[in-house]
What does this fold into?
Amino acid sequence: MNILHSSLSDEWGTPSYLVEMAREVLGTIELDPCSNAQWNMIVKANEFSSSSLYTQWCTEPKSIFINPPGGKIGNRSLTAMFWHALCEHLRKELIEHAIWMGFSLEQLAISQSYDDFKMINYPICIPTKRIKFDYQPGISGIAPSHSNFILYIPGCINRSEKFLKVFKELGAIKD
It folds into this structure.
């Protein structure tokens, strides 16, 4: 095992300053499909779930915040599975817009098998400094061994310009 890629947990929370930036872009965070009651104290989504990978997240378009868990189920990446679920909701036009917290640039490669929904096709911020995700609400972990990114996914609402304006202070932006 490579110690640089290991962790005591596959579950990491988003620091509150990034959640506030996401909220500034999304307006209201209506749904966080990768959360639980503890982490939702930070995200403050109207709805959240920790078991929504195999279910339809919503029946009408919603603004979504996603910080997918790491790890695997069998040999399948949980991150890839959440990206697939998000793509299915985009196809069904059930996403107003979303922000995806990427914990490694390797996730960009995961999305390459989705012809219509490659991550690189969306507005992206690559922070100058690695994001120290929280291991408990409000308690930062150490900086990860790889770079992070924040992705904005427009659906029936497009606030790409707002995303670029809000997140440019963190680092490089590609629109």
Q: What stands out?
A: The chain has a mean pLDDT of 84. The CA atoms of residues 96 and 157 lie 5 Å apart.
